[in-house]
Write a structure and sequence with these properties.
Elements lengths: L2 H12 L8 H11 L5 H51 L1
Helix pairs in contact: 1-3, 2-3
Length: about 90
């Protein structure tokens, strides 16, 4: 694992509530929680953290949408099943 990923992962584990989906806010949060002397390194860390959190948010959104679709399809199949079983009994 390269140093950007390693440092970003450590910071996200230690301070999960400090970082969000905004790059500029993450740069400011980095200044609060760590001493980063290099402007380039700070920007790379903030960029990696931002992209990581955005991907994670997109995955959570997609998985929740899939779960809702599964629930709807189960509800539809449950509604169709009683009428089909009633017709079979007659």
């Amino acid at each position: 694992m390269n140093r950007i990923k390693r440092i970003s992962t450590e910071l996200l584990e230690k301070y999960p509530n400090k970082f969000g989906l905004e790059f500029d806010a993450n740069k400011k949060a980095l200044n609060e929680v760590a001493v980063v002397k290099s402007k380039v390194l700070r920007n790379e860390l903030a960029g990696y953290i931002t992209s990581y959190l955005r991907k994670q948010a997109a995955q959570e959104k997609a998985s929740s949408a899939m779960a809702e679709e599964e629930e709807e399809s189960l509800e539809e199949s449950d509604q169709e099943t009683p009428s089909a079983s009633a017709a079979a009994e007659e």
